[in-house]
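[job 4471] stage=fold_predict status=RUNNING
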Amino acid sequence: MKRELIQYGMMVLALGCATLQHVQAQELQQRGKTIAVRCEKASLVRNGEKITAGLDIDLSDLSVKSNQVAVFVPMIVKGADTLKLHGVGVYGRTRWYQLERYGMRPVSGKEEQAMRYNDRLGTVTYTETADYSTWMNGSELILMRTDYGCCGALTDAVAETGLAGYKVMMYEPAFRFQAAVAEERKTRELSGRAYIDFPVNLTTIYPEYRRNQVELAKIIATIDSVRNDKDITVESLSIKGYASPEGPYSNNIRLAQGRTEALKQYVQQLYRFDYGFIKTDYEPEDWEGLREYVINSYIMNREGILAIIDSNMEPDAKNTKIQKTYPEQYSFLLATVYPALRHSDYQIEYTIKGFTDLAEIAELMWTQPAKLSLNEMYLYAATLEQGSDRYNEVMETAVRMYPSDETAILNAAYAAMQREDLIAAERYLSKAGTSAEALYAKGVLAGMQRDYGNAIWLMEQAALKGNDGARSEIEKLVEAQQYAR
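[job 4471] inference complete, writing structure tokens
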């Protein structure tokens, strides 16, 4: 019997629902958009991959009947794109009773911030964080109100209130990727250092002596790495020999010069290079190498030793002065540092042929990028989708191959900013200098970091140096700064 009564009651409710909804809709339509709330402190703030909406909803003037629910849903909107956030539901007495006693689902979803209506409703502080998407740049935050009766939404009562026209102005920069100048001649260098051991006071190379096989193999491997490559023409080999500061300077001249010539002859016998191909030079005593070691060490009396090294004394006098003034430190230097000052520095100059075939460039990009010029790398990048993983790899490879080239630095920074890796962009731009293009790029980064004051200043400096895009960026930054206040 009880079951039948419940079924009958539900039937009566269903029969009366349409009429009741019609009456409520008419009443609300007559009242129209006067059923409004006030909104203050509306904001949209982006932080990396997240965006946070916030506002205060003043419900003081709200009136909700016992069997109705007023739901307020903030929405991020731009054109056809919309993101609904969780709603705020204000429930009349009967609807609140149903929600509490029977565990009914909140009208706008389980995330809804539900509350009971009473005459003392004040201001609700609302906040929600959602995943950021690029379409949200320049979006609006609006508040949608929908009133619900017993059987669903009273569509005539839907109204946008409070936030119409409110915008978050996300700075949308113009990335100025740079074109690289084509090299007429792709000249490169390979350098190395070998520590050839010679018996005391001799200038003859003994390949089996101590570690000479290893050190000579280093030079040979470096030469072979370019000499056997069909895309490379070796132009010259330079060798410079150094002796250490102990002993008479005149004898060190003989040793440095003779040992350098011995190494030249050894290489010449292996390769039979043309006359004049191997160029030689020598440094009788490597005082610069000694100074570099001392200045980067924690050796006792470091400042005193450096003062002697930097003095105008003759080389023999310097060595003697260090030996007599700081005997303990001199003994240490003589045993552990001076042997490394006897070395041979070598440098191979070569040219690489130019590449124009994009398929060949693409293959070299991922196998032998050192063969490509910056311009050739960017020719390949132009065939890729800007911002794609492959495109970003090209930009990063380019700056790795050409770490001091401003064009490579700026393009790597723009690629990082495009994928919103601002930490990497900042690292690249720390090496970019103060040219007009570098200042522009730094201004873009500051704008993306929402440091609008600094961004505008940087753009002004870029404009003064002749950057033709800085003025339009200043206008965008000023507008974004105004909305951020």
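[job 4471] summary: Residues 2-31 form the longest helix (30 residues).
[job 4471] exit 0
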